[in-house]
Amino acid sequence: MSNYRIQGATGEWEVVIGLEVHAQVTSEAKLFSSSSTSFGAEPNTQVSLIDAAMPGMLPVPNQECIRQAVRTGMAINAQINKYSRFDRKNYFYADLPQGYQISQLYHPIVGEGELLIEADEKAGLPEDKVIGIERIHVEQDAGKLMHDQHPTMSYVDLNRCGVALMEIVSRPDMTSPAEAGAYLAKLRSILRYVGSCDGNMDQGSMRADVNVSVRRPGEPFGTRTETKNVNSVRFVMQVVEVEARRQVELIEDGGTVVQETRLFDPTSGTTRSMRSKEDAHDYRYFPDPDLLPVELDDAFLQECKASLPELPDAKRARYVETLGLTAYNARELTAEVETFARFETLLAETAKALGKDEAKLATQVANWSLSVAPGVLKSLGEEADPAHSTAEAQAKILKMQDAGEISGGQAKEIYEIVLKTGRDPEEVADAEGLKQVSDTGAIEAKIDEVLAANQDKVEQYRGGKDKLFGFFVGQTMKATQGKANPQVVNEILKQKLG
Amino acid sequence: MHPRPNTAFSVCRKLSNDDGLRRLRRYARKGGKRRQGAQGFIPNSRLGGHHDTHIRTRSVTDLTELGIKAIREGVKAGDFTAREVAEAFNASVAGAEKLNAFITATPEKALASADAVDADRAAGKALGSMAGVPLGIKDLFATEGVQTSAASHILEGFTPQYESTVSRKLWEAGAGMLGKVNLDQFAMGSSNESSYFGEVVSPWRKQGSDAKLAPGGSSGGSSAAVAARLAPAATGTDTGGSIRQPAAFTGITGIKPTYGRCSRWGIVAFASSLDQAGPMAKDVTDCAIMLEAMAGFDPKDSTSLDMPVPNWEAALSADLKGKKVGIPKEYRMDGLSADVAKAWDDGVQWLKDAGAEVVEISLPHTKYALASYYIIAPAEASSNLARYDGVRYGLRDLPEGANLQDMYAATRAAGFGDEVKRRILIGTYVLSAGFYDAYYNQAQKVRTLIQRDFTNAFEQCDVILAPTAPTAAFALGEKTGDPLEMYMGDVFSVPASLAGLPAMSVPSGLNAEGLPLGLQIIGKPFDEQGVLNAGLALEERAGFTAKPQKWW
User: Fold this and answer.
1) What is the ipTM of this complex?
2) Which of A52, A154, A481, B17 has the fewest CB atoms found within 10 Å of its own CB?
3) CATH C-level class of A440-497
4) Residues in domain Asn/Gln amidotransferase (chain A) (predicted)?
């Protein structure tokens, strides 16, 4: 349970949050037509006769969309309904050519499931929490109206019309902005792992309707409002915060929260009423007579199951248990598909280059992937060409470092040059003199010089002032312009100082 | 089906006489056995006659007397050209404006298809099963480049860029299009009086009367066109009886196949779970031929049956030995006219004569069928017709200063006729929150019970015989004041629609006033063959040869 509370004038309030997430199904074609679903095309260039609801046109379900919804359901451990069917949600709007949206009210394809959000103290999540998911159903997206193209008329773009969406409905299990944010981020991560949605929230591929209510601790649910089409994790958190606060202030001022649909304005950071329950449409849902029920057989379900990749929770556990990574590193590496993919490729490449077990290298590669490499990349800014950052090049750097040929600092320097030029890391190390000196003779000579120049300190050390060891290391490194292998320096110093 | 020696067709002046042809038909039907033509008549192909000397002079009316099979065989044999056929029917269409059977005539399309068939024949290519047959196409089927209005103002001027699957299949089989025939607006009606383009007038008249009669509906343009020899056949659609009832009213034959046999793709939707296309033609054989050309799995229609199309024509047989015919006792209800009851009794005798055993069956939920139908069909229609909103195509009524809602209201108020509005209102009401369970859900339950009635009945019989409609054709205007009375006329046709069963109407004879009556055969799912065979047995015994006197 989150300890998030709103401090009102009259006491503490809890917030209760449920999210309805619309996720665009990744598929070439729309839910019931063969039109393309790609983003950013010229208006009305991806519209079939079916999408435009020409007379006599009929929908035919796109099997791939069904498959993606089932796979998504499996990824949240949900009940997959072998029997589901499509219903019509009837209302008039210019972006809805059929005059109804084909959706699933009575028999959704996916039933009860759940999603784990992990503890993250810093993010305000004291412990792991399981959020219930009520259902996932598949439905058509609507088109888009453009009101700014003509002084008195609106234009309609039907490109999005008929694109398949999954509506993922959570239970009202979240009790803080942090939980809502973490839920959405985790859901997005799962969808992207599964490949059922690209998760591009800025392109509208994922958007959330945020249901918020407030109550005194221990009391029944309050009246909720629904803020529509919120399109980022940050905005979802913001909506929860401002909407909960608005409701608390309203109630404390003697008002009542009305059940209504609200809109979020990111510029002002406020929500405003769109329509109240009284103006709500009567959607006259009924089973779509153009479509047969969707019946799934075991072979299909098995195929869906078999096609699922390792999912975030399982991957995170494996990183900790098998690769020995810290919980923090494991979470960071598994959050995004790209991150773990890069990490796993680099780990495999490095293990191959070194002939070592992955588990032995995992921590080193994780540190490199999470902090060293991103740091260098960031510091270079536009000078860096990320295309040069191949797993092969990075593995070569890590190999040289592992062999003691280069220091950590040299590794960064080499990586910088590689990023800028695409040169081979080993060649860079040689040509630029970015190698550690491991030649014991040369190092010994320098150490002798250092010790000779600091006889007094040698005496003090031998007299028991152990801390001075670091001083001798530093002096030696300085004398070798930092190129000496610290390990070798340590060993020789220990010998010489007795 | 037995092999035919030579199915060439020929027409001579002697046969251009209607009487002769009629007699010939009657002769052929006698005894249920097809025979060679005899007694100096030159045989009609449907008799399986051999090619004979023929005289190549004939009048236009000769060819318009012919049905699908006769035209196909005649074109194939070279007795006449497809172009001659098309010209003859084009002329009939042009001369029948008083019937108002056509919304759009497309003589050039009929000629173009005919010329293609003639060219194929000249080139020695194989000809399709409908080669050279020009058709009336109900104006509910989308036809590429030709206005498809659904007999409504809202779709007036709408010209699709696509061809319905059914019409496309017909063109592929070698048929041509005489034009788009009239219908009740959006196929909603039983008299063809709800068309925006005006009522269709039946070519039939009561004896001694010139009152205008209804051709039935909704496929009233189709029925009138075939009955008046404006087309050898026409497409129809049947949602609650819209093929069978107009066929019965006009003395022609029509079959609604099992739901899903014919693709609905490209047919303007009325009630999706009920709509089925089917042929309306002169006789059972022609229906078999044309249905074969229309039917078939279509991946573009999710409710399409993924089953092979049988060769119904080849398997036609009027021999019903070993078959059981069910007579539903609940259909003997109040409001059944005496002449219809008599025709039904005749039908029972004819089927017995064909070798069938007749058994009484029970369809206990019959009395709820109409109520169920008039909830489900409007419910679906209210949603299906939401797309006619003035935004993308068809009529747009945009009053000065109107917003979107105003535009919807104005467009739909102006674009839909009263009957369509009535059904949209009913459908919207029965789907509304608070009424959904009481009406729509309840109606669906009744529908399931009706389906179960038929399933049970078909354990005792192979086909069911019933009247098509409780009365013969009524006068135009007679029922327009009372929609419920109009709906009551669908009482015998609606149950088979709700159950998705194949059903056909075959003319049985004329009533005392000289108007045709129809008998209905209802079959098991997918058993169009059983329906056609029983229909053929009726047809052969009914010997129905009457045709309307030309007054138009």
Assistant:
1) 0.88
2) A481
3) mainly alpha
4) 345-497
